[in-house]
Amino acid sequence: MKLIYTDSLVVGAGLAGLRVAIASKERGLDTVVLSLIPAKRSHSAAAQGGMQASLGNTVKGMGDDEDVHFQDTVKGSDWGCDQDVARMFAHCAPKAVRELANWGVPWTRITEGPRQVVVNAEKVTIEEAKDAHGLINARDFGGTKKWRTCYTADGTGHSLLYAVDNKAISMDIPVHERVEALALIHDGKRCHGVVARCLVTGEIRAYIGKSTTIATGGYGRIYEVSTNAIICEGIGQALALETGVAKLGNMEAVQFHPTAIVPVGILTTEGCRGDGGLLRDKDGHRFMPDYEPEKKELASRDVVSRRMTEHMRKGKGVDSPYGPHLWLDITLLGRKHVETNLREVKEICENFLGIDPAKEWIPVRPTQHYSMGGIRTDKTGQNPQLKGLFSVGEAACWDMHGFNRLGGNSLAETVVGGMIIGKYVADFCQENTLEIDTGLAELFIDKVRSEIDDLVEGKGTESPFVIRKEMERIMMDYVGIFRNGTELDKAVSELQGLLKRSRDIGLKCNKRHANPELVEALRVKRMIKVALTVACGAAVRTESRGAHAREDFPQRNDKDWLNRTLSSWPDENALSPELSYEQLDVMKMELPPGYRGYGINNAIAHPDTEKRELEITQILSELDEEADCHQKQNAIMPFEVPEALMAKNERLSDKLNESGRVQAVRGIAK
Amino acid sequence: MNQFETKGRTLTFNIFRYDPQEVGDKPKIVQYQIEETPGMTVFIALNMLREHQDTSLQFDFVCRAGICGSCAMVINGLPTLACRTLTNTYPKGEITLMPLPGFELIGDLSVNTGKFMRELAERLKLWLHPMSEDANVHRLETPMSPEEAAKLYELERCVECGVCVSACATKQMRETFVGAVGMMKLARFELDSRDSRSVEDFYHVIGNQDGVFGCMTLLGCQDNCPKDLPHMQQIAYLRRKMAMAQV
Q1: For residue B68, which of A281, A369, A232, A572 has the smallest C-alpha distance?
Q2: Where are the beta strands (DSSP E) in A372-516?
Q3: pLDDT digit string (tens) for B1-25?
Q4: Which end of chain B is more exposed for a tag (fewer CB within 10 A), N or C?
Q5: Count of H helices and E strands in chain A?
Q6: Nearest residue in B to A507, CA atom
Q7: What is the CATH number of domain B10-110?
Q8: The whole model's pTM is what?
Q9: Domain boundaries, chain B
């Protein structure tokens, strides 16, 4: 048995995993990162648009702060998020952006003076303040009140991942590449590490750690068409699920991005619309103002995706061999803008569509994009059921996104969540001892070994590729943008049939070392379980919230459904997850459930909402008249982050206030 | 639209096959045939071949969108990214796939670029060496000129695909040669006002035959770079800087 032990074990080398590893190493802890691929190839690299942080440097961001970012995030989540976590996040986001600048990210900077931008299809001139020159710039994104998304052209994820991985290399953090975790080692109460397989040699190893952090990204690849990289298969979530102990949260919360290209599903960034791009139908008509007169193309993602689908259902889509699509028009931004700020988009259009987006419209349709659900954690990133198991980034349900994530908040979550949770992981490693029970490790290794033996030597007849295609189709057809009871029930029963069939997989290639068919077989069995948590959760949740839209239950029902779905897998032979629910406490919310600002306000109110609103009014009235926003916030809903991150964020407006010039700058903003 | 115009013709793929871990296996070219579909890329074709014809076929893809750099291989003699190579760019419908030369072969079309890049980063110290370590994340950030930020981003767009290394004759002849990717990255840090290293520091790392003075200016790196990075310009820039520093 090959046994590798460390203090902080991290599974996944994207931004979230690397940031946690850095936090561990900074504390002098022995740290090992496992990755399917070289770290710099992680899906984090694909994030184009940027990361939200309320720096408030640009004139369109003046007046922005943690409060506004927090409110946007909670509304964006359709009140499904953990408000404490959203607070911790909004508070630390500016720190993460500034830290990344110190690590080498060449954030796009502000140039003082007038510049032309496109707002609501019109060219507008805005004037950036002299004092803002050279500070970090921000662009507009859906669902945000201020221009808050910091970016490097449209390669933000790439820039961030390279800077963070470079930092990790400089700290000598080992990344074991081409290694796949296949089981968590645990005793029902504490997680001790993972069993992993080397994808090159086939060697099975046990990695033992004081803490095990799952940062393996989302589960988009259970869907047929997804913007996700092909490694986003939900294996991290599946490993937690297969313990039978650890629970997953809100797995049915799956977001569709409005503008992926047809047919391959590669994303064109929300920055296209943020920078002024428009959506058009088969007649060239700009239809979003008809549905969302206020926010138009910049309503939140779930809303835009549904409006597009609605419009296509009315026959306004453009026919293609792959079904109907709509157009994304960025021609009005001009060639220079497209070739500098939207260069990845231009390359994608050229290489995959053979079109020039500065001249031609881009064929787009909503496509699976982000999974808000994941391994349930508390505020410190630890799983409540298995001590020592942490999760961060898209893999986790830390729960700042609730039922819909705002653009620019995912990239931000990876580094901000990594920054915060990394400190808690390090604390945990310092407070706990390493427990090495080789018998226990052996037990889990044997299990993985015999699973592989069965596949390689067994007489199964099913093809992993065929089963996988079936699963993807079921998810796409029945658990998509609009959902209903009949289709969801069909999804559940068909997935259960597939799960049974997956127990009879046989391989054509019987190599035990590098063998893509074996890899596929090991994954697909796990992916179907994840798919079942999504379908079952969606079937039971009889309301519409954020990205979860039930045609048969169009109202957001705070009275009965202001809760988080938890799924666990009862035993190996089970055909569906066990669901339970975790209530969200309105009386502890800083922002009680309210109108989100899109379409008609059709929410069924929670009985406590009014009570909490009165209580908040009361709390505020009892405060000193001089109380600032931090004191008010603290009185309503105090939150904590690790001590080193507690300090307030400085902003340009503070500086300008000191010099008595803030009025002048605000004047420009209007 | 171009992508929908391709008619279903039969494509012939000649693919390099070799499993270095399989005792007795010898390198060979295996021929496969497949019906072309509209918008088909080499990524789509290889996956279909694996699903329907040979489940043991090894290759690497991650983003399948030209962003991550995983899937570089030699296609009809030229190194490039397979994910964004449309099959309809080859009028004869015959496509030969070879693994990138210059890297450890994992099997078939899969090579270990990750190991190469990590070792290069450690050898050349390819990370920001900040002027001061005490930057405060709670305070306003240090301003940077917008032009400098834009220039840095331009040089930072490398995806470590390995194409420049595989297309470099010097690298093929001399194992220890740094190659364009390493020099491009150093040029990026040399330009960064936040980096504390001097020209002399860079000279110690690449001011020799393994670095800028070993380049024969054959342009393979620049001609094939999928991100159109200005490799030659940067190598020339570093060379000039170093020559001047020695005067």
Answers
A1: A232
A2: 374-376, 389-391, 396-397, 482-483
A3: 444 455 689 999 999 999 999 999 9
A4: C
A5: 20, 22
A6: B55
A7: 3.10.20.30
A8: 0.96
A9: 10-110, 112-245
